[in-house]
Amino acid sequence: MRAVDLIRKKRDGGTLTTEEIAFLVGGIESGHVADYQWSALLMAIVWRGMDKAETAALCDAMMRSGEVVDLSGIPGAKVDKHSTGGVGDKTSLILAPIAAAAGVMVPMVSGRGLGHTGGTLDKLESIPGFDVNLDLTEYRDVLARCGLVLIGQTPEIAPADKFLYAMRDATATVESIPLISASIMSKKLAEGIDGLVLDVKCGHGAFLPDEAKARELAATMIGIGRSLGKKCVALLTNMEQPLGRMAGNALEIYESVETLKGRGPQDLADLSIELAAEMILMAGIEPSIEAARQRAVRTIEDGSALERFRQVIAAQGGDPAVCDDPLRVLPQARKMVPITAKTGGSVAAIKARDIGQAIMLLGAGRERMDSHIDPAVGIQFEKKVGDPVAAGETMAVLHVNNEMRLAHALELAEAAIEITPEPSVPPLGVILDRIG
Amino acid sequence: MRAVDLIRKKRDGGTLTTEEIAFLVGGIESGHVADYQWSALLMAIVWRGMDKAETAALCDAMMRSGEVVDLSGIPGAKVDKHSTGGVGDKTSLILAPIAAAAGVMVPMVSGRGLGHTGGTLDKLESIPGFDVNLDLTEYRDVLARCGLVLIGQTPEIAPADKFLYAMRDATATVESIPLISASIMSKKLAEGIDGLVLDVKCGHGAFLPDEAKARELAATMIGIGRSLGKKCVALLTNMEQPLGRMAGNALEIYESVETLKGRGPQDLADLSIELAAEMILMAGIEPSIEAARQRAVRTIEDGSALERFRQVIAAQGGDPAVCDDPLRVLPQARKMVPITAKTGGSVAAIKARDIGQAIMLLGAGRERMDSHIDPAVGIQFEKKVGDPVAAGETMAVLHVNNEMRLAHALELAEAAIEITPEPSVPPLGVILDRIG
After folding, report:
1. ipTM over 0.95
2. CA-nearest residue of chain B to A173?
3. Which residues of A are tagged catalytic?
């Protein structure tokens, strides 16, 4: 088998076999496939696509390039959730304790934010002392003790994905649904899970704003998961406006704690409970989605979800007092800058991507992977789409430390919030569809 | 400027500017464009193509990556010919002395054979002592003294093309008319020529068998040449059957000498004279193609073309006696293996690519760039397409040294010569069209 012949096959629209894909992925580590051959192949895949079997084979080979964690020694169904990312999307921090409190084992490996999108690890690190860099032994141990664990990708997990991810980033071959799907799923399936609930976003702030593309991504990821013997379901959700009322790392921890106390904003609470219910159903703990939903709600009402969050924070070195007095424990920004309505009417849109860009300028996110993050900064919304607003009323507040790029951030954020003179605008639904 | 943004632009069907292309080609030497970025870009170019201006800019940047030879110190118009290659295609060896004898300066940089296609350098090296590896000073000197020079590519010429050629070979990105054209033209234009006559082959033995593709290649190369201020014209010629009656390195030198003596086969003589006439016309030596044609014929009749060949052979260290007694000077194969007609009728086809493969198996050509060449072996045709043939009559003779792969070669060659019971088949025309 020669890499050049396989590149030619894909270039000409052919279908690679499982053995051919295993040869190509294996060649990354062995060196018998050069990086410049892989990048040409990646461009051919962007051009020609991959069918279901090819995509599953690619994911499987990437997963097997590293350690596939064996969690069979820990009793219970292991179910994780993956979101394609957005602005203010902190559901992991809420649903993982809920699902764990309901009896699901939640081994969660998360990523960092990039561009306008936040990342779960960055949010967790705004809790003083919280360590996301556990090794696989600690990972198993925290999971067994708390029913959930929240870590970053370890070097043992899917090294071929790390190589291909860097290669795609440097060669403009990121935008391919089979490649995106195989990359996500190879890492998730290497965690040792039995099932995965996917939160696939569409709308202004989503990685794939177009709903049809988002549906294709969901179907592709579900196809991979099922091909490899895992349970999979996806919710298609709305990322037109930021999720919840806060975006920014410490602010999102605060809002997550509030939501675990039953005081969260409606959209965030609804989505977190629905995703947790899917996990509970998938784990076989409840027989119907309705029963699973009620079970999830009960873990908030009886405090057991918040208690799980407290436990995992303590187990991973963080200050559990964040669950009791978050405003004291979490870092606070020095300056509050309100955004007021210039005219009255109703909030017609809060363009999520632009909000993400604005708070990235304040230091809440990364422009590049090596950018520094300021955990305290972000934005807090007083109004969301559909809310009435009077001229001069505060719509949002920026939390600011470094004022260097404040003017630019403020301009972006102000323009992102659109007001219509209409007295009534329907609020945006969050859950658009269930796929799977 | 970042390579990844330019790759994305081409991936999405955009048009690269001259500055962007210069940045990308310059990045090969400077290292600011990685090889894996170039290979992804090459695949995007195979996918999306390049327009006329992009192709010319690529060629220009590749040409300028090395030394562009300055021949302005040598008086006279410098005109070269390039052929896209075929089987039995030895016109360079004939037309270069003809054109030189007519007063054209012919600075010819040629290549080696690969696969079923022969190469001028390999043919020349079957002349004992002939040295194709001159440096640029010797190159200028032989040209000034003889009016022609016949060398291989030097390291100073278009190093970016060497890099890209190797990259394309390893990444299945060879088959792109803009990339092929820019590669050919970058080397040719770096020779220091004023004009170029192209012999673009189509048919069974050609690099691009399809006539429409061959026309596209011709038009693209002419477009590049003219964009960069050079005179260019192309003949579209037939490579269905081998050109002339001999294929194999020493055999083709023999046939070239015979043709320079006015005793060559019709198709070879006609094409060599026509290409030489185009060079004479382009150099402004004669006012019309008809006058140029007559001038070319006269250089054969008066022996001046053969004399030029003798001179350049002597100047490059070869034995000039090859012009007087080629059978004594050239290496001979040990064994002659005839191919006889199984039935009578007419020769309907001699499939050039299969003939090229057959003699490659005997050692006349290279399977890989590092394969060893046997100069003595090859094939000699007694019959060509259109000739009547009786059952049992000899159609061709294989010249063989190593019998290891003879059976396979014989089988291929026998199958390549097709006989029809029809008493009369029209001979194949050689020159199909003039483009430019």
Report:
1. no
2. B8
3. 82, 161, 168, 183, 187
- Does residue B176 sit at the A interface (CB-CB below 8 Å)? no
- Counted across chains A and B, CB pairs separated by less than 8 A come out at 81
Write out pLDDT tens, residues A355-384.
999 999 999 998 777 788 999 999 999 999
- Contacts of residue B3 in chain A, CB cutoff 8 Å? 170
pTM: 0.86
Interface check for B369 against chain A (CB to CB < 8 A): the answer is no
pLDDT in tens, A94-132: 999 999 999 999 999 988 877 788 899 999 999 999 999
Cβ A403 vs Cβ A335: under 8 Å:
yes
CA distances B134 to A65, A194, B105, B143, B155, Å, are 50, 69, 17, 11, 11
Q: Strand pairing partners for A347? A: A419
Q: Which amino acid is at B378?
A: G
* Calpha distance A20→A15 (Å, rounded): 10
Cα gap A413→A396, rounded to integer Å = 9
Domains of chain B: 3-49 (1.20.970.10), 79-326 (3.40.1030.10), 331-420 (3.90.1170.30)
Of residues A37, A38, A172, nearest to B8 (C-beta) = A172
Residue of chain B whose Cα is closest to the Cα of A164: B36
Do residues B377 and B248 make contact, with C-beta atoms less than 8 angstroms apart?
A: yes
Closest residue by Cα to residue B380 from B293, B252, B277, B238:
B252
pLDDT confidence bin for B286, thresholds 50/70/90:
very high
